[in-house]
Design a protein that fits this description.
The chain has 247 residues and is mainly α. The chain has one domain. It is 84% helix and 0% strand. α1 packs antiparallel against α5, α3 runs parallel beside α10 and α6 packs antiparallel against α10. It is globular, with a radius of gyration of 18 Å.
Length: 247
C-alpha cells in the first residue's frame, strides 16, 4: 500500500503542473519563449537520461529471456502513432480549427497521460527510487508540454478559465493510469517487464523527435550553447540519481 501511496501522490503532483498556465499569463511572449526553450532542453536531457541510464538497464536486468528492445521499439512506435493521429497540437501561426482541434488535443493528451501513469506505476513496483526517477523525467517533460497545451486551448478559442480547468481534468488521467497500472501489475507481475522498456521507447521518441528538433532551431551561438548545457544537465541529474539511489 506504501507503493500505491507513492503512485497516487506523485501522479497527482504531476497533474498539478497543468496549473502552470496561470504563471505564464503575465509573462511577455519573448521571455516566455526563452524560458520554454530552457525547459525543453532540460526535459530532453531528463528523458534521454531516464531512458538510457535507468529504464533500459533495468529492463535488461529484469527481462530474462524476453528481448526488451522489442518493447522499446513498440513504445517508440505507439508514441509516434499517438502524436500522428491524435496530437496535431502544434499550431504556431494563425488560428487553429476551434472545435476539432480542441477535442483532438484533449483526447490525445488524456491517452498520453494515462500511459504516463502506467509507466510511473510500473517503475514504482520495481523500486521506489526507480519510480521517483521516472516521475522526475516525466515531470520535466510535462512542464513545457502543459504550458503549450494551455496556450493551444486559449489560442484556439477556449476562454482562459475553461482552458485551465479542462487542462487539469485531462491531466488527472495520469493518476487514473497510475492506479490502474498498480493493480494490473499486482495481478500480472510480468507487466513491469514490458512496461519499463515500453516507457524507454516513449521517452526516446519524445526527446528525439519532439524536443531536440525544437532545441536545434536556436541559431544564436550563445543561446545554443546554453541550451546544450541545460540538456547535458538533464542527463547528469538522472546520472546523479542513479549514483545516489542505485537505480
Amino acid at each position: 500500500m506504501i507503493t500505491l501511496g507513492y503512485i497516487i501522490l506523485t501522479t497527482f503532483l504531476i497533474a498539478l503542473i497543468a496549473f502552470i498556465g496561470i504563471f505564464t499569463l503575465s509573462l511577455k511572449e519573448k521571455i516566455l519563449n526563452e524560458i520554454l526553450l530552457i525547459l525543453v532542453s532540460l526535459s530532453a536531457g531528463a528523458l534521454m537520461g531516464g531512458a538510457f541510464i535507468h529504464l533500459l538497464p533495468e529492463s535488461i536486468e529484469k527481462g530474462g529471456e524476453i528481448n526488451p528492445f522489442i518493447f522499446v521499439l513498440m513504445g517508440f512506435i505507439l508514441f509516434f502513432l499517438i502524436e500522428k493521429v491524435l496530437h496535431w497540437r502544434h499550431c504556431h501561426k494563425g488560428k487553429c480549427d476551434v472545435h476539432t482541434f480542441h477535442y483532438m488535443n484533449l483526447i490525445g493528451d488524456s491517452i498520453h497521460n494515462f500511459i504516463d501513469g502506467l509507466i510511473i506505476a510500473a517503475s514504482y513496483i520495481v523500486s521506489i527510487p526507480l519510480g521517483l526517477t521516472t516521475t522526475v523525467a516525466i515531470a520535466a517533460h510535462e512542464i513545457p508540454q502543459e504550458i503549450g497545451d494551455y496556450g493551444v486551448l486559449v489560442y484556439g478559442g477556449f476562454n482562459k478559465k475553461k482552458a485551465l480547468i479542462l487542462n487539469f481534468i485531462i491531466a488527472l488521467t495520469i493518476v487514473f493510469g497510475g492506479v490502474v497500472g498498480y493493480f494490473v501489475s499486482q495481478e500480472i507481475e510480468q507487466a513491469v517487464v514490458f512496461l519499463i522498456p515500453f516507457a524507454a521507447g516513449g521517452f526516446i521518441y519524445i526527446a528525439a523527435t519532439d524536443l531536440v528538433p525544437e532545441i536545434k532551431k536556436e541559431v544564436n551561438i550563445k543561446k545554443s550553447m546554453a541550451t546544450m548545457l541545460v540538456f547535458v544537465c538533464g542527463i547528469l541529474i538522472m546520472w546523479l540519481i542513479k549514483i545516489l539511489f542505485g537505480h
